[in-house]
Design brief:
The chain is an alpha+beta fold. Helices cover 27% and strands 23% of the residues. A hairpin with a 2-residue loop joins β4 and β5.
Length: 308
C-alpha cells in the first residue's frame, strides 16, 4: 500500500511541516492543509508511515467539523479542494484528494484544550501521585480508566519542542485572558459531551480528546453580510477534531475500569514502542509491517463506526 510521508504542493510556499500535517499558504486569507501518513509517538515522528492515515484523519475531522458547527464555527472553507482554487498555481495533484482541506487562516491560541471524561494517560499518572488532574481535586479511590463524575477541562501548554505540560485553568487564563479561557473551556466541554453521546451510540467511548482553537484575523469573506459567519477576532475551531490521533477511543463492549483499555487509536503504537523498550529519544525506531497494518485497521474501524 502506498503511503504519503511528505507532500509537495508545487508553487505554494510551505509554511510549516508538523508531526502529521503539511501547511501551505496560498494567500493571506487561506491555508492549505495536507494530512500526510506520518505517525508520531512520545514527541517523535516515526520513520514508518501508516497508509491511508491522512485520509482517515481528514475524513473524520470533516465529519465532526460539520456535525459540531452549531456549537462553534470552524476553519473549513472547502473540505476537499481541487484545482478550482488558485488555478494560477500548479499545486494540485490527485494524491492530495481526500487528505487536503482549504481553511481560514487564524492566530492559533497558545494552549491546547483537553477534555477528560475518564482517568487515563497523564491524568491517571498525576492522580496516582496527588489525587488531582491539572490541580482539579478528584474523588479518592478512583481506578485506572474510571469514568469521572463529570468531564473536566484540563488545558496544556503547546510546546514547540519537547513535551506539552498540563496546566491549571488559572494559568491558561493568564496566558490568553480570563474571558477567552472561560469561552474555550465551556466550548470544549460542550463539544466533548455532544461527541461522546454520539460515539457511545455507535459503540465507542471517547475517554479524552484535544481541541485547538484560533482567532480569525480577517472576515471569512470579503463583503459578507453581517451574521453570515465568523469575522475578525472571533474564536473558531481549527486543526483536527475528535480523531484517533487526538483522542482515546475505547470499544464500549470491552470497557472495564481498573485496567488499561483496548482502543481504536494510536495507543497501539505507543504500547508497541513501550514493549520494545525504546528510550523515547530520537531517532525513533521503524514499525514492523504487522504493527503498521493493525494500526491502519484500528483507524479505519474508528472512522467506520463513528461516521456510518
Amino acid at each position: 500500500m502506498a503511503a504519503m510521508f511528505e507532500s509537495e504542493a508545487k508553487g505554494l510556499p510551505l509554511l510549516r511541516r508538523g508531526k502529521v500535517r503539511d501547511v501551505y499558504q496560498p494567500s493571506t486569507e487561506h491555508l492549505l492543509i495536507v494530512a500526510c501518513d506520518r505517525i508520531s509517538a512520545f514527541d517523535s515522528v516515526l520513520p514508518t508511515p501508516i497508509p491511508d492515515k491522512g485520509r482517515i484523519l481528514t475524513q473524520i475531522s470533516n465529519f465532526w467539523f460539520e456535525k459540531t458547527a452549531h456549537i462553534i464555527p470552524n476553519h473549513i472553507v472547502d473540505p476537499n479542494p481541487g484545482p478550482q482554487w488558485y488555478p494560477d498555481i500548479d499545486w494540485y495533484y490527485p494524491d492530495l484528494d481526500g487528505r487536503t482541506v482549504l481553511v481560514r487562516a487564524t492566530q492559533p491560541l497558545v494552549i491546547e484544550a483537553i477534555v477528560r471524561g475518564y482517568l487515563s494517560g497523564s491524568g491517571w499518572k498525576e492522580y496516582q501521585k496527588q489525587g488531582t488532574v491539572c490541580s482539579i481535586q478528584l474523588p479518592a479511590g478512583l481506578t485506572e480508566s474510571a469514568q469521572l463524575p463529570e468531564p473536566i477541562f484540563t488545558p496544556s501548554t503547546k510546546a514547540t519542542s519537547g513535551h506539552d505540560e498540563n496546566i491549571p485553568f488559572e494559568t491558561a487564563a493568564e496566558l490568553i485572558g480570563a474571558d477567552l479561557a472561560a469561552k474555550v473551556r465551556d466550548t470544549s466541554l460542550a463539544l466533548y459531551k455532544f461527541a461522546a453521546e454520539h460515539a457511545l451510540e455507535r459503540g465507542i467511548i471517547i475517554a479524552d480528546t484535544k481541541f485547538e482553537f484560533g482567532l480569525l484575523g480577517a472576515p471569512a469573506a470579503a463583503g459578507a453580510p453581517a451574521g453570515a459567519g465568523p469575522g475578525a477576532g472571533d474564536l473558531i475551531l481549527i486543526d483536527e477534531i475528535l480523531t484517533p490521533d487526538s483522542s482515546r477511543f475505547w470499544p464500549a463492549d470491552d470497557y472495564a475500569p481498573g485496567r488499561a483499555q483496548a482502543s481504536y487509536d494510536k495507543q497501539y503504537v505507543r504500547d508497541y514502542l513501550e514493549a520494545i523498550k525504546w528510550n523515547k529519544e530520537p531517532p525513533a525506531p521503524p514499525l514492523p509491517p504487522e504493527v503498521v497494518e493493525k494500526t491502519r485497521e484500528k483507524y479505519w474501524e474508528a472512522v467506520h463506526r463513528l461516521t456510518a
